[in-house]
Specification:
The chain is about 40% helix and about 20% strand. With about 270 residues, the chain is an alpha/beta fold.
Length: about 270
């Protein structure tokens, strides 16, 4: 009521305590070495971006506009990763200038654009290859991103030639692999299956693992949403961390809905009855 009196209604109100608690839950599960990159597309409110940065989060971007939101919020961009199936040259150039952590490569055609951006600044661009592992995530078809028929990522069967292109290019540096299976996942198995398929691919040739430091398992951590329990993120970490540590790979996770999906309410006022 106090907020409505100050600001009017309708008004969105977010619980900072809820968001911090969720972030703490992820940090406790995946450890201090993990890169937690909030998916800005979930909610790009500037105050939320500042709150998440102050709580220790990096950011996951899918557009130049989202990068501009980070800059407008005054938060660092060096712990941001940049995905998206249709990166434009100006977006790539802006992200390179902002010094992001790495790009997630979704399509072979991006390599020429990324290489040109690296040449323009005289420094190799760090990239992680987004692989499509063809894993069933048991979520709704409209929010599934890791099956063969989905447009996201590069099929593992075609990824070897993409790696070849990256390692031969002096303006590109392969630093990791990225897999995102969709939204509202509620079981651990798809994350494990995806990792095993990526690991099998990487083990197929030494050049596929040289210089690799990051494994970006995406996000999609399911929340209760009135239908069942949220995903047990500690169980996901318990399965993946031993596998990652064997390879000295740093986990990167991209929570969006998990952090803010049920951390806010819309407060309205009754204007009258009819």
């Amino acid at each position: 009521r106090d907020l409505v009196e100050r600001f009017g209604s309708p008004i969105y109100v977010y619980s900072a305590a809820t968001i911090r608690e969720r972030l703490h839950r992820l940090r406790s599960a995946f450890g201090d070495e993990a890169r937690i990159c909030y998916a800005v597309k979930a909610n790009s409110n500037l105050s939320l971006l500042r709150l998440l940065h102050e709580a220790g989060s990096g950011f996951d971007l899918v557009s130049g506009g989202e990068l501009e939101r980070l800059l407008a919020a005054g938060v660092p961009t060096d712990q941001a990763v940049f995905a998206g199936v249709g990166k434009e040259p100006w977006e790539i150039a802006a992200a390179v200038a902002a010094g992001i952590l790495f790009f997630n490569v979704e399509s072979p055609h991006e390599l020429e654009l990324l290489s040109a951006a690296g040449m323009a600044v005289g420094k190799p661009v760090s990239v992680a290859l987004r692989l499509n592992p063809d894993v069933e995530a048991n979520t709704h078809a409209y929010i599934s991103t890791g099956k063969d028929e989905n447009k996201f990522g590069i099929a593992i069967d075609h990824a070897a030639e993409v790696v070849d292109t990256i390692v031969k290019d002096p303006w590109l540096q392969l630093v990791g692999y990225h897999v995102h299976l969709g939204s509202q996942l509620h079981s651990v198995e798809p994350y494990v299956q995806a990792f095993e398929r990526v690991a099998a691919f990487v083990d197929g040739a030494e050049k596929r693992r040289d210089g690799v430091r990051y494994y970006d398992l995406g996000g999609g951590f399911g929340i209760g949403n009135g239908q069942g329990e949220p995903l047990d993120v500690a169980a996901v970490a318990a399965e993946l961390l031993p596998r990652l540590r064997e390879r000295s790979w740093i986990p990167v996770i991209e929570p969006g809905r998990y952090l803010v999906g049920d951390a806010g309410i819309l407060v309205t006022s009754v204007l009258g009855e009819k």
